[in-house]
Design brief:
437 residues, Rossmann fold, 2 domains, eight-stranded mixed sheet, elongated
Length: 437
Amino acid sequence: MSEVQQFVDKVKNKEALIGIIGLGYVGLPLALRFSEVGFKVLGFDLDGSKIQKIHSGQSYIKHIDSSKIAGAVQRGFTATTDFSRAKEPDAILICVPTPLTHHREPDMSYIVNTANQIARYIRKGQLVVLESTTYPGTTVEILIPILEKATGLKCGTDFWAAFSPEREDPNNPDYHTATIPKVVGGVNPDALAAAKTLYDQVIVKTVPVSNTQTAEAAKLVENIFRCINIAMVNELKMVFDRMGIDIWEVIDAAKTKPFGFMAFYPGPGLGGHCIPIDPFYLTWKAREFGISTRFIELAGEINTAMPEYVVQRTMDALNDREKSLKGSKVLIVGLAYKRDIDDMRESPSLILIDLYEKKGAKVDYYDPYIPVVPPTREHAHLAGRVSAKLEDVKNYDVVVISTDHSNVDYNYVLKNAKLVVDTRNAIKEGAPNKIKA
């Protein structure tokens, strides 16, 4: 019996130990899903506080209930900061961040550091899958060479490698880890067979592709598609505003067409770990081949400029009321990057705070899911700020709705705020003290 067949049989019998590196918004749900169907799971993370919370059955992500973690722990889910234990799992799934540098180039440090940490412990018969979104070629150009050099093992024969991009959408009521089809690409047929069999046990449908580069590219296309379409409606919002046309009403009318149209909505900018970042991974890689991705870069410019547009609209609205933004008290409603989650990664609300304060405004925020601002890479200076109370909206010169959490009483905001700048169409009714931005 071949080694890959032994691996496949072990997975099908749920005798394989699953290792997951990075227990954040991607890795933790994946770990819980493997545990749910009967696998033993070993999680890895550098953050010791996460390990402690897991072992005590506590959640550190809003949309994941603590009972799910406690149940997984009872079934044998454990976690560690000790990467020497990477030799234990039969499959290692890497779910670490892939941000951009200040020059908007791929930051591969998390993948490289992870590869270096586990490289000494990789053994024959293991499957290593990269799930982190990245540019085409990362698996074969960065991950595999590090592992082969450190171990002397040959990828494709001694161990297998694959790429399967994460498709998590935090707090999506219709889709979750188990119900979102998963693209899988391996370095050779054996690697693909091993990875596909693994994900077949936990995902409703796997979509095999010819190689890792194709799988890496597929993830980028998904997010570039959203980035470009959001940029289009953001630009149309500015155009239609000058024309006195409500972009939200236009979209509602257009989406009644049963074919050929998909509704995207404008906002104060792009947030989350994927859409603001991933398109630039392809832009960077394309330069290696002498190609300029003008369409992607233009979309990025439009989306990146949206916080400035919101600030300008705020200044104009205050000016119409004979008040300057400088010295005004501003309350930003919503710090998370999207509705009903506690995830602040790349949130445009953080950019808005900086822009308003640079203009001389005094800025507070309100977010029912983020009582205190945690440390972030780009906005470390905001760490420790405490959420204001919604009942205090009357004390502010302007309230800016940046995230449309569904548990916020927007009627209260409209009735009590002096001025509301609504970037999300959270308040449907018109009022003298409300403007859309």
